[in-house]
Amino acid sequence: GATPLLIAGPCVLEDLDIALECARFMKEVAQKAGFNYIFKASFDKANRTSLSSYRGPGLEKGLAMLEQVKKEVGVPVISDIHEPWQAEPAAEVLDIIQIPAFLCRQTDLILAAARTGQPVNIKKGQFVSPWDMYYAVEKARGAGAQGIILTERGYTFGYRNLVVDMRAFPIMRNFGVPVVFDATHSVQLPGGAGGASGGEREFVAPLARAAVAVGVDGIFMEVHPEPKKALCDGPNSLPLEEAKGLLMILKEIYEVIRKNDILSP
Amino acid sequence: GATPLLIAGPCVLEDLDIALECARFMKEVAQKAGFNYIFKASFDKANRTSLSSYRGPGLEKGLAMLEQVKKEVGVPVISDIHEPWQAEPAAEVLDIIQIPAFLCRQTDLILAAARTGQPVNIKKGQFVSPWDMYYAVEKARGAGAQGIILTERGYTFGYRNLVVDMRAFPIMRNFGVPVVFDATHSVQLPGGAGGASGGEREFVAPLARAAVAVGVDGIFMEVHPEPKKALCDGPNSLPLEEAKGLLMILKEIYEVIRKNDILSP
Amino acid sequence: GATPLLIAGPCVLEDLDIALECARFMKEVAQKAGFNYIFKASFDKANRTSLSSYRGPGLEKGLAMLEQVKKEVGVPVISDIHEPWQAEPAAEVLDIIQIPAFLCRQTDLILAAARTGQPVNIKKGQFVSPWDMYYAVEKARGAGAQGIILTERGYTFGYRNLVVDMRAFPIMRNFGVPVVFDATHSVQLPGGAGGASGGEREFVAPLARAAVAVGVDGIFMEVHPEPKKALCDGPNSLPLEEAKGLLMILKEIYEVIRKNDILSP
Amino acid sequence: GATPLLIAGPCVLEDLDIALECARFMKEVAQKAGFNYIFKASFDKANRTSLSSYRGPGLEKGLAMLEQVKKEVGVPVISDIHEPWQAEPAAEVLDIIQIPAFLCRQTDLILAAARTGQPVNIKKGQFVSPWDMYYAVEKARGAGAQGIILTERGYTFGYRNLVVDMRAFPIMRNFGVPVVFDATHSVQLPGGAGGASGGEREFVAPLARAAVAVGVDGIFMEVHPEPKKALCDGPNSLPLEEAKGLLMILKEIYEVIRKNDILSP
C-alpha cells in the first residue's frame, strides 16, 4: 500500500524561523501519522485580492529559504510558480513544482514546469470540472512530466463561496494520477472579507476527514504557529497543534480505507 | 454513544415481497453494522418528472403494506406524506413521518406532521441553505414535534446536477437535531435522463463514507433486490449485497468518529 | 402582434383597499403601456420562511376579495393554490390558476388545476432547469389544460441567492407556451434577511428590461402603495409610481422586439 | 450621450485576409449602428483546453498583423497579453490592452499593462463576483492606468456551463468604469465539446439584447466570415451578416436606454 502525502506549511514565506518551525513540527507529525511529508510555502502570492497585501520574499530569496528548510529539516519542498521563466530556477530547488489553480489553464506554464523533469502538482481551477482536468494532465504528460499530481481546492459555488464536490476525487484518480485534497484553501470565502479572502477554519477538519474517507492520495493544509499573525490566509490556516490532532484522526480513517482496498487502481 | 440510524428500503412500494425482502435483509445488515434500522418506502411518488411514471399503491394500500412489513419483520417504518390531511392516517402506522425535500417549505405540511405526535424527518430542499433549515426545525418545534430529524440529499448545482456540501452536516447538527445523509438521492441527476432523473450509483459509496467521516447521525439509502427492474430510482438504488458491503465499511469509519468524540454535542 | 401580459398586485391580500388601489392604478398603467393587465395577489402564503410571518386571509375570504377586485375594477384575476382540493373553488373566481414555484413538481396539484378548465400559470422551480419545465407543461396538457403559461422567477445560485438565466426564455418559449418573467421574486435573497427572504429592489428594473429585450410574453411584478408597510415581500415590491415608470420603458423595448419580429413562433 | 463601443473580430489571428475582412465589415456596420468600433483578435490563445489546438501566430507576427489592420482599415485595435513582459511591446501597437478572464487576479499582469499608459480592459474572471472586480480596478488605478474597462463574459454555473448574471452590469458600472458585455464567450460551454469549449451561438443575440437593455457601455463579439472554418471558438462566433443584423437591433434598444437616461452616472 502506498503511503499518503502530507503537503503542509505556511501560506507564504515570511521569515525563516516560522518556516523551520512549521517544517520540523509537521515532519514529526507526519511520521507519527504515517504520511510522507513535503514542506510547502509560496515565495510570491501573485494573485492577492488587494494590491496592498503582503506578497512574499520573491523568487530568489524565497528559493534560498526553501533550500535552507530542505537542508536543515531534511524534507522535500514544493512551491508554486506563476510565469514560465520561473520553472527552471525553481526546479533547481523544488522537489515538486506547483501550478496555481487560477493558472491551471495556462498551457505554457504547465509545459515549462513539466519540461524541467521535476514532478508537477496542478491545482484544479475553481472553474474547471473534474473531468476537464484531464486536459491539464495531458498537457503535462505531452511535455514529458516525470510525475503528475492533481489537487482539489474547491469549486465556484455562487458568489464568494466554494464547495468541495467529493465526486471529484474518484473522477480524477481515474486519470491514473494521485489526487491531493487541499483542505485549507477549500474553506476560503473568496473576496468575502473586504479586499481579502475570508475563511472558515472550522470546516477544515470535517472536509479533510471526508476526503480521506472518499479516497485521496494526500492532504494539503496551510499551517502556522500563530494564524492570527499570519501575513496571508490566517483565517483558514491551522495552528500546529490542531493540525496534529487532525492528522492523527486522518490516519485512522486512512487505515479503514486502505484495509478495505478502496484506493486500489 | 448513540447508535446511528440506517433508513433503507425500495424507493417506492411495489409489491409486498420486495418490501419484505429488503426489510429482512437490511435489518440483518444493520444489526451486524451496529445501526438502528428503519424501513422506508414511499406509498406515492407525488412529484415524478413525468406523468407516465409509476407512482405507487397510494395512501391506503401503501400504509397497509407498511404495517405488514412492520409486523412481519419487526422493524419501525418511515414514509413521506405530500398533503396535510395525510398526516393523521399516516401517523397511525408510521414511526416517523417524512417531509419531502421539495415540500420542506410548506408550513402546513410540517405542522400537520408535527401535530401527530410522531417524530418528523424533514428533508432539506435542493434549494435551501443549511442555515435556513433552522426555520423548518422551528416550525416543527413550534407545533410540538416529538422528535425532529433533518436529512441532506444534495443541493442544486447548475442544471440537472446536485452537489453535497459536506459543511451542511455540522451546520445543521448545530441546531440540536440529528442529521441523516441520504446517499442515494444525492447522486441523482434531476431530469438528466429524458423525462426521468438519472443517477450515478458509483458515487453512493464515496459520498456515504464522506458523510460518516464528517459526522452524521444516520444514513439513508434506497436499496432494491434488482435495481434494473425497480419502478423508481433504479439508476441510483443499491443492490442489497452492495448495500451490505458499504454498511460494513461505514461501521468502521463510524467507529473512528465515535472514538474521537467528534459527534458529541 | 400579440399584446404582452402584465400580472401585478400586492404579494399577499392584506385589506381590500390596498388591493383595489393597486388594481386600479396598474390597470391604467397597463393601458398606457399597451399590456393586458391581470391582478394578482395570494390568499395564503403557504411557504413563508418563518412560522410567525403573515400568511393572508385564507382561501374563502381571499377568493371573496379577489371577486370584489374583479367586479369593482373590471380586471381578470390570478392567484396561487397549494393543495389539489383548492383548485375547484379557486377556479370559480380566478381567471388563471397559478402553481407556486416550490410546488411545480407536484403532479396532483398541476392536474387538479388543469382539470378545472381554467388556464394554468406554472412557476418554474428554483431547482428546475428550463428544459425540464417541459414535463410540467406535458402534465398540464395531458390533463386538458385550456391554456398554459410558464413563469421564470430565478434559479438557485449558490446559497441564499438566485440568478436569472436569460437563456431560459427562448428555451421555454420553444415549448409553444407563453413565458412570463417574474421580475420581483427573481431579486429575492432566500433566507437572506434572518427568518425572511431579503430582496434587492434596485435590480427589478434592469432584469425586467433585459427579459423584455430577450423576448417574453409578459411581466409579473409585485407592487404596493407603500412597500415598507407591506406584510410580505416588501424589500422587493415596487412602489406604484416606480412600477409605472418601468412599464413605460418596457413598452418601448417591447416595441423594438415586436418590430424586429423576434417573438414570432 | 456617450457612443457605445463595439469590440469585434475573429477569436484568434489566422491569416491577414480574414482579419482585414472582419475589420472592414465591422467598421462599416458599427458606423451604421452608431458604435465606436475597435478590432480585436488574439495573437496567442494561451489557455486552450487541449494542447493540440491552434494557438495563433505569436506575439511578434501577431502584433505586425494587428498593425497592418490598424493602418489599412483605420481602426483602433485591442488584444490580450498573458505574461507581464508582453505589455510593453504590445502597447506599441495596441490601443487597448486586454487582461484575459482567467488571469484577472494576476497582479503583475494588470500592473504591467497599466504602466504602459494605454487603457486596460480587464475581463471578469468566471470565478470572480462582480463586487470583487473592484479590487482589479484598484490595482490598475494604483498603477496609473489611463483608462479602465471591465468586461463580463459569464460566471461559473455548475460544471461546463456559464451564466450571465445581468445584475453584474449595474454593480460594476458603479465603480465608475465603462462595462462591456462579451456576448460570444458568455455562451461557451467550457470543456463541453470533448477537449474544446462548446458554444451555443443561438443565445448570443438574446444575451446581447438583454445586456444593452440593462445598460452597458459596449459589446464584444467574436465574428468570422465562416465560423465553421474558424480555428478557434467557431461554435460561438457570429457570421458577419448575423453580427450586422444583431447590431442594428442593439442600436434600437440602446436608443431606448439612452433616451430614458438609464446610463447616466
Main traits of this protein?
265 residues; 18% strand; 8 helices; alpha/beta; homotetramer; eight-stranded parallel β-barrel
Q: In order across it, which strands form the biggest sheet of chain A?
A: 1-2-3-4-5-6-9-12
Percentage of residues in helical conformation of chain A: 25-40%
Strand content of chain A: 15-25%
Shape of chain A: globular
How far the N terminus sits from the C terminus of chain A, by CA atoms, comes to: 11 Å
For the largest interface, the chains and their residue counts are: A-D, 34 and 34 residues
Poorly predicted sequence stretches spanning 5 or more consecutive residues of chain A: none
Oligomer: homotetramer
Mean pLDDT of chain A: 95
Whole-angstrom Rg of chain A: 17 Å
Query: Pairing-aware structural class of the strands and helices of chain A?
Result: alpha/beta
Q: The biggest beta sheet of chain A, please?
A: 8 strands, parallel, barrel
Order of helical and strand elements of chain A? EHEHEHEHEHEEEHEEEHEEH
Beta strands of chain A, count: 13
What is the count of helical runs of chain A? 8
List the helices and strands and how they pair.
The structure is a homotetramer of 265-residue chains.
Chain A: E1 5-9, H1 16-33, E2 36-40, H2 59-74, E3 77-80, H3 87-93, E4 96-99, H4 107-115, E5 120-123, H5 133-142, E6 148-152, E7 155-156, E8 162-163, H6 168-173, E9 179-182, E10 188-189, E11 198-199, H7 204-214, E12 218-224, E13 238-239, H8 240-259
Parallel strand pairs in A: 1-2, 1-12, 2-3, 3-4, 4-5, 5-6, 6-9, 9-12, 12-13
Antiparallel strand pairs in A: 7-8, 10-11
Helix pairs in contact in A: 1-2, 1-8, 4-5, 7-8
